[in-house]
Design goal:
Blueprint: E1 2-7, H1 13-24, E2 28-30, H2 31-35, E3 36-37, E4 41-42, H3 45-58, E5 62-65, H4 74-78, E6 81-85, H5 89-103, E7 107-108, E8 113-114, H6 119-126, H7 132-144, E9 147-151, H8 154-163
Length: 167
Amino acid sequence: MKIQIIGYSGAGKSTLADILKDYYHIPYLYMDSTKFYDDMQEREPQEQAKIVYDFLAANDEWVIDGNYYTIAPERYDLCDEIYFLDYPRLFCLKEAIKRYFKNRHQFRESLGCVESFDFSFLIWILYEGRTKYWRNKHLEHLRKAKVGHHFKKRQELIRYLKEKGIV
């Protein structure tokens, strides 16, 4: 099983990745952890791509959480399923704030560094990460998926996971 999870910041991509990796007993990669390290330092795109390509080469099955469409884009063609978490912006903002207060000043594996929340991330969640361009990219990958799952509410995802016996 090869699973790609896409969606907006704060939607719960990493949480879903954790659920699916445990259910299927497969390796996982958080795309944020390929980009960030230490104190929100950013890796160069070539270094990010190497991390992803090394992960793909080392694993026959996987869950990858995160967008970063220009980094190792072949992963979208390789995956068996894509999950698109298409939740409302205020829901995602609320979840990101909850996550920050739960994890502040702590290393978060799915982020690859210490949890943070600043004004630029707020703007990303509410506006920049939700442009028509990004939405079309999500939908384009979903349309091309062998199996695509599009959830517009967290309750839809939970219902689906329960029906499948995953949770």
